[in-house]
Design goal:
By secondary structure, this protein is α/β, with parallel strands linked by helices. It has eleven helices and eight strands.
């Protein structure tokens, strides 16, 4: 039987109830299909990874571009897709709500809203205003009874504000405002992770793991429910591309091309 959107959303919520699952971040339709074939249970978009595919820096893509990308990802796979929806592509709560309502229509099973402003002088929204933005996203999701899972993100550790108590305070406030899952990208130590998990319990926590960090088993032992990798898969793909391209441009040789994934295997995977 075909997998319906309702099935995807119900499955995604169920995944957050027990255990710990990996939510890898594809950057285009091909990488999404590959991850599905590898047996992952759900996927998440990556704002950075997608931006690089269209030749832009992270946080420079438009709402139209992101919604088209999310629609393509959701249509390409039978898995639930969580959207990296950045800050909702707006400042004011009412605009965030309108954009979230549009994001829900792309077919996503989950969606995250962060509290970073993009302003280096004042990198996080004022606490009360950030809470209103989460409430607005919650209202937009509930308006059509979509069942989309809302993740509230505190970007403190990514913008140099590493006061864990502040981050936890915000995450708890976002949970009270209606966030189903909480996320503080940048926390790394077992002590930090454990503190966040305990503070927002019983709501689930997403953990970002990049080039190094805990294993799935270690994260699960700390109570983490899901693990995402952000733009790491995209950066890994770009690493191979840039090594080969630079060798051709700078040395006039082609040895790096021999390290490419076999074309025949790719054709089988997508055939």
């Amino acid at each position: 039987m075909p997998v319906t959107l309702a099935d995807k959303r119900a499955t995604f919520r169920k995944l957050h109830e027990t255990g710990c699952f990996v939510l890898p971040n594809p950057f285009d339709v091909g990488s999404a299909k590959a991850l599905q074939q590898l047996g992952f249970k759900a996927l998440a978009s990556t704002s950075a990874g997608f931006a690089w595919t269209v030749g832009k820096a992270d946080n420079r893509v438009t709402l139209d571009e992101v919604c088209a990308h999310l629609t393509a990802l959701c249509a390409a796979v039978d898995l639930p897709v969580n959207a990296d929806f950045e800050g909702g592509f707006a400042h004011k709560p009412e605009k965030v709500a309108a954009h979230v309502a549009r994001g829900v229509q792309t077919g996503v099973a989950g969606l995250s809203i962060e509290d970073s402003t993009g302003d280096a002088a004042k990198p996080l929204y004022e606490r009360a205003f950030a809470i209103e933005r989460i409430k607005a996203a919650r209202s937009a999701i509930d308006a059509d009874r979509s069942g989309v899972l809302l993740t509230g993100r505190c970007e403190g550790f990514l913008v140099g504000q590493t006061d864990l108590n502040m981050v936890i305070d915000r995450l708890c406030a976002y949970a009270d405002a209606g966030a189903d899952c909480l996320y503080a990208p940048g926390i790394k130590t077992k002590e930090q992770i454990s503190a966040v998990v305990k503070a927002v319990s019983p709501k689930p926590v997403n953990l970002l793991i990049g080039a190094s960090g805990l294993s799935v088993a270690e994260a699960a032992d700390l109570g983490v429910r899901r693990i995402s990798v952000g733009g790491s898969l995209a950066r890994t793909a770009w690493a191979g591309f840039m090594r080969a391209a630079r060798e051709m441009a700078e040395q006039g040789t082609f040895t790096e091309l021999a390290k490419g994934f076999p074309g025949g295997e790719l054709n089988k995977m997508f055939g």
